[in-house]
Design goal:
Shape: elongated
Keywords: Membrane, Transmembrane, Transmembrane helix
Strand content: under 5%
Protein name: DoxX protein
Number of strands: 0
GO cellular component, one term: membrane
Pfam families: DoxX (PF07681)
Helix content: over 70%
Number of domains: 1
Distance between the termini: 34 Å
InterPro entries: DoxX
Largest sheet: none
Length: about 160
Amino acid sequence: MQGKQIGWIALYIRLALGVSFLSAVADRFGLWGKPGASNVAWGNMKGFMDYVNVLNPVVPDVFIPTIAWIATIGEIIFGILLILGFQTRIVALLSSLMLLLFALGLTVGVGFKATLDYSVFSASAASLLLVCFRDIPYSLDSLVKKKQRKYSINV
């Protein structure tokens, strides 16, 4: 594959993951609709916290809000940074680990089939694939790299 084709693939992976993270957060904040509405998973943070409780049956209830907010903040940060392509390799690695933890929680709390149905392993693997790209074209990373090259001193 040519460099330009790889760049488009990296862009597609970044946008697919980033938008998916932000869509999940939008659902928690009720932006996709109220709880119980068609195609709405949670509809509010309470519904999401109840779901986090199902995924973490061995975790004391007192820690569930913290876990829910850490996941939410992580998804906001990872979503935005992946879309922008900033610190892509680091963000991709961290998001892959977060998705893997979600897959494990989903397997324990709901069952292995749900993990496959929601393509969590696929998303985690796609995120990990981004780590393998040395150059991330069409990104803030590539702009920063160009500026660094432009202003570097050749000795």
